[in-house]
Amino acid sequence: MSQDKPVSVSHPTIRRLPAYLNILRKAQDENKTHISSTFIADKLGYEPIQVRKDLAGLGITGQAGVGFDAAELIDAILGFLGWDNATDAYLIGAGNLGSALAGYKGFKDYNLNILACFDSDLRKVGTEIHGKKVFGMERLAELIERTGVNIAILTLPDKAAQEITDKIVEAGIRAIWNFTTVKLDVPDGVIVERVDLAASLALLSRRTAEAMKNDK
Amino acid sequence: MSQDKPVSVSHPTIRRLPAYLNILRKAQDENKTHISSTFIADKLGYEPIQVRKDLAGLGITGQAGVGFDAAELIDAILGFLGWDNATDAYLIGAGNLGSALAGYKGFKDYNLNILACFDSDLRKVGTEIHGKKVFGMERLAELIERTGVNIAILTLPDKAAQEITDKIVEAGIRAIWNFTTVKLDVPDGVIVERVDLAASLALLSRRTAEAMKNDK
Where is the CoA-binding domain (chains A, B) (predicted)? Predict the structure, then answer.
């Protein structure tokens, strides 16, 4: 296995890395030390060439007949994604979805640590949600500046999304995981990734209705 | 406002409809009866022409100087997406993410009703999660056939995803909202929409690391 400096890696490749990570970790749990691109591809329904290309993009090539060293590959993926160290994040908006995410234990697989929650509802302020303290929105800027937290998970109502974004970016937030339906306006250098559950459900619903109409 | 038979509507347009729906419902709550494409566009950070094109695709055009009739537009979007009637779904895999989604009240905005949960963990079977009963996996096929539920929300571990998919599709499931990282193999006519939280977080993490490196 050789590992050179990674060049530019495509977004689709980056999106597939967590799936590879899951397979590799499971293989390790089963005491496998080496794993082939065919094995990974089979588990995920990809073509083996896809897996090899993706990992080559990270500067990693397997050994013929032996495959990839699982431990090395896990380290390489974690390092590439910056998941080798715990990353603190603030969760903003402790409503239904926010509370669900605050309690989602799967984030620990990716070393994402929700440090605290923020909400404008005074009945929630001072309480804890899944062990995370809830602060009022007026503490946001101060706590971002003081703790140096870079990542915000935005689970607040759409109407407040842009205003709060402006405030947290000014305070030093560099990355926003946006669960609202708003297309946020941010300065260059601030990263936004949106997860739009409603959009996904809309597509599922409409495509299903069309497919079922075709049955008749 | 005229409303003709919708022709083919693009996936990006369908994905934007829930955001329009949110804006329209909020406007109604504030006793606005009419709403302009510029207003909708402003709230979402889109161009007004985009909003007009999207809605024209559904066969809806606003009235010059007056805008869209909010109530009619809401009905048209709900009808188009099949969200005008409650849709029952089964949630399969009552782990962390599954439990969070079972308790997510936001789905009621889209008339999605999680009827029950299924899990292979015998300690969970027979209990309730957020008021939804948990059944054992051996009841899946029977209950899908008996109730005629079409939609499954898949929140189980990757390794079980394809096997359970084969089973539920055979029993009659027509649409799968896939929260696993597995690319599922399904027969023609069965719809799969995947929400890959880990993929989104991977992209956020890597892009942020790159942006912060550029600062130095």
Answer: 83-183
